[in-house]
Amino acid sequence: MPATSRSRIVADVDFDRSGRQHGFLRLFHSVHASAYGFIPIPIVVLRNGDGPTALLVSGTHGDEYEGQVALCNLVKSLDPARIQGRVIILPAANFPAAMAGRRTSPIDEGNLNRLFPGDPDGTVTEQIAYHIEHELVPMADLVCDLHSGGSSLMYVPSALFGGWQRDGSSTKGVAALKAFGSPVAYVAETNQGGARTLSGGAARQGIVCLGTEAGGSGHVTRDALSMVQRGVNNVLVHLGILPEDARIAPDAPTRFLEVGGPDYFVYAPENGLFEPLVELGEMVRAGQPAALIHLPETPWAEPATAHFARDGFVLCKRVPGRTVRGDCLFHLGTDIAL
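Below the sequence we write its predicted structure tokens.
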């Protein structure tokens, strides 16, 4: 950590030491039950010789489990002698949220991926955001931020690059996305949450950030986990941290999509029960009915209908049946050549 750091979080690992280390980022937190205690955010560092650094992050949202499982597996399987460079692994970035299995922290209700660049003197979640953006990200040559749909959404397992530029200036990010080798991948000029996300923080530091939306619905599927583990491995090969013979060939070519503005999304028009009229992976047309919202308290009333605003591929679908006006029901991607 730089001597001029303003972060109040203290790391008990040495980022410059060779070999494998595991320990904690100590976020000091004084509460009734522990006056001088700290929140122990687990961190693992593997280093061997000179080379690039990858920062691998999951648990930014605590109810997104695929990335957390993948990084737990990687921590135990990656041999420092096999790498050239450094891998920093933060498997439960918003540790209070991860322990609670919630999108947001039970301490301050902070959504870590909407609080970057953070505040070194702020709430618990703001302090985590500040430390990641200002202490960990600057060490990295590439950040991989592993997400899924969490408790309320389900995705076609996908990788993504949210810093894409139409003018061709984002070739490094596109190359890393291609190297990931997911069956579906999408690009967006701005992620949901924009500058307040880890992707936005990495962009401020001039670092490429890849992401995933690896399934969701509050559980882990074998296909989604396999996609994440293969993709992270292949990104380490792409960076030169792992040797070329460690590359895992994908099962099929990647289908590339773009996710654009508001017309890519479908939202609940009323409170009620969500009846989907399409499923993940289907192609839909503009004007096509997407969902019915039923009113069980007045079952004789006609349901409200939500429609797709454009043609596209159904990339994401809401999971819970009970919904309120403004909930995201679907979002689409449109095919693009990269």
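The chain has two domains: 10-258, 263-335.
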